[in-house]
Q: What sequence folds into this?
């Protein structure tokens, strides 16, 4: 999306137009290593918290969303093998049948702050990547009164179609003015289901409280959620128990394909919807 916008950029009358900042990624390690998490196994999208929120996150019940219970059932404590790719589906189907899909999804996406070897680990302190992003944006944001922040993600929802996810109903009303009929508050019935208890999502408003910010997560659907969860969990197990092996490389490819399907239909849809979002914001 960024490359397409830049290739068609029209710099005329730039002084009367809004400032545009492109951030390619705040997890360069993850990009280089095909990982959902950073070099500390921290999920940066569960790591951006205020001092008060850190105290809550580090002291709340680790099983608040039933993550511990789910992890004991589906989390490998060894290097995975190819058979696990199929066995996971049977185990996950059992959990979904008895607990419901949204409950299982909530257990995973809520994040956790007690097990540094498990997925969606929010860490114990703010990571350097978020510090660096804050410092990079400070000279620009210090002059801003209003900002629109589009945080592009992939994984949940219909393949190639975007959902704009926000924290609550108030944020939804603001975002709907820019992206009508495409915004869901956390805890909704679509891609945003299960996120009610999540903490630590990247927040431009938290970085710069004096600026009026409309912040949306533009989530592009890829493959069914059970496959996304499977590939995250198996890659994470391979990272901890068979790092840099051929097995680990294989699970990294599975993870890439879960978040970035290699079909032209998917890539074309992402480009169409992504450009539409950009120009609506612009």
A:
């Amino acid at each position: 999306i960024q490359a397409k916008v830049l290739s068609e950029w029209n710099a005329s009358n730039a002084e009367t137009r809004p400032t545009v900042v492109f951030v390619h990624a705040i997890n360069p390690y993850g990009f280089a290593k095909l990982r959902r998490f950073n070099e500390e196994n921290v999920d940066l999208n569960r790591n951006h918290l205020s001092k008060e929120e850190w105290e809550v996150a580090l002291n709340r019940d680790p099983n608040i969303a039933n993550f511990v219970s789910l992890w004991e059932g589906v989390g490998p404590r060894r290097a995975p093998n190819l058979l696990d790719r199929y066995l996971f589906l049977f185990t996950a189907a059992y959990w979904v049948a008895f607990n419901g899909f949204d409950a299982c999804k909530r257990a995973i996406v809520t994040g956790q702050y007690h097990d540094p070897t498990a997925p969606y680990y929010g860490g114990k302190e703010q990571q350097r990547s978020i510090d660096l992003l804050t410092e990079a944006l400070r000279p620009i944001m210090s002059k801003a009164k209003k900002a629109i922040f589009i945080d592009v993600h992939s994984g949940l929802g219909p393949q190639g179609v975007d959902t704009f996810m926000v924290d609550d109903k108030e944020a939804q009303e603001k975002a709907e003015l820019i992206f009508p009929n495409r915004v869901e508050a956390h805890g909704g019935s679509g891609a945003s289901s299960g996120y009610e208890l999540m903490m630590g999502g990247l927040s431009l408003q938290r970085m710069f409280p004096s600026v009026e910010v409309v912040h949306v997560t533009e989530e592009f659907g890829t493959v069914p959620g059970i496959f996304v969860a499977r590939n995250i969990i198996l890659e994470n197990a391979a990272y901890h128990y068979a790092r840099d092996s051929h097995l680990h490389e294989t699970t990294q490819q599975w993870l890439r394909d879960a978040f970035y399907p290699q079909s032209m239909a998917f890539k074309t849809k992402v480009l169409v919807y992504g450009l539409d979002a950009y120009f609506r914001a612009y």
Q: What stands out?
A: The first helix runs from residue 2 to 7.
